[in-house]
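Lab notebook, bench 4. Still working through the backlog of constructs that have no structural model yet. Next entry is a single chain of 86 residues. Request: give me the structure tokens for it.
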Amino acid sequence: MSDSRGTTSAGCEYTPRVVSPLSSLSSSRPAYGEFDIVAMVVHVSSESCPPRVAEEDSEGTLDVVYFADTTGIVGVKLYGGVKVSQ
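Model written out:
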């Protein structure tokens, strides 16, 4: 197929997911606006949110998680902080 769609055994069409290098985040437009990456967490920075930025359930915290792969590094802001499930 020329449009990179696939078909399941049940005959449903889908767009296969593709792992993207971090360096392509600013230049590509993936399906559904989502990126799949394989990267290493290299740093987590925590700070307090200004009141106008903090959401009601965020407890006023902001974590920035920095990911790196062989092509680059990117920071992702997580309002409300990183949550750990047990």
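Notes after review: Residues 6-79 form one domain. The chain has a mean pLDDT of 78. Flag for follow-up if needed.
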